[in-house]
Amino acid sequence: MKNGFILITTVAFLAILAANAFMFTEFVRLRAEIQHNQNSRFLVDRIAKAGVSAGELILSMDKNSYDWSGDVWVKPKHLVLPEGTVDITIEPLDTRFNINSIINKDGSLNTQSINLFSNLLSVMGLSSGLLDTLLDWLDTDDFPRVFGAESEYYSDLTPPYRPANGRLMDVSELVYIKGFTTEILKRSDERQGLLDLLTIFSDNKINVNMADPIILQALGYGTASVEKILNERELRPLSMNILMNIDRQTSSSLTRIVKFTSSFFCITARVDCKGITGAQSLIVQRTNSGIKRLRWERN
Q1: Which of 5, 86, 265, 266 is the most exposed, fewest CB within 10 Å of its CB?
Q2: pLDDT value of residue 153
Q3: pTM
């Protein structure tokens, strides 16, 4: 255990050194460009993108066969440059429920995913009717379910629009679906927001090593089991054997949708450059061959 702790500390130190070295090199390279463009926004954006690249470097250094709260990349990195500061955070996305997994690639419904989302609504105290409106938005027909809505409903809105009849391109699109109000989608002092628990980037499996307790409950674990899982993963990465020891019946039913590592991440760099602030985010997929960039997002 002591040797393992020393190894983790060493890797963390090397990751921070590598990120700092990368950022300093990028800063020097940007100097020439900055001389030709004194726009502060240009400087902030370029430093933010360099910060994201540093995050990719940190993430690529993690070679574990698991991803949990004790990993090097989890702790936010604060870097100081001559022109300001950069804060880099890396968030795993496959700790969330993939909302698009409800519809299979052939257009059929995924029963296990539907049950999981239904459980999620129940755990959060939200209306079960939201499942009908979501299914109507995702499916290709124009026949509304009991609590659902199809083109007839949306065409009467101001302004009118049509349901997507297909997979979401971003979880923020949920706001256009009947019943998915900003009050339930966004976090508040009283409750967790749905947007914090959903994603469209994953292999339809959930990394239970870092999943929110609400997601664990939605998977079917009772309150006592969730508490045991949280306690266990504070000490070490989880495994299927550990989950089986906690709740064999529930864990046995989840072998196809739970995992202990992550492949999809959101890397965010927030910059403060002499009072001018900005941020850039990049969705990436970590593969055996390296980091694959999926989508840039400007915050």
Answers
A1: 5
A2: 97
A3: 0.87
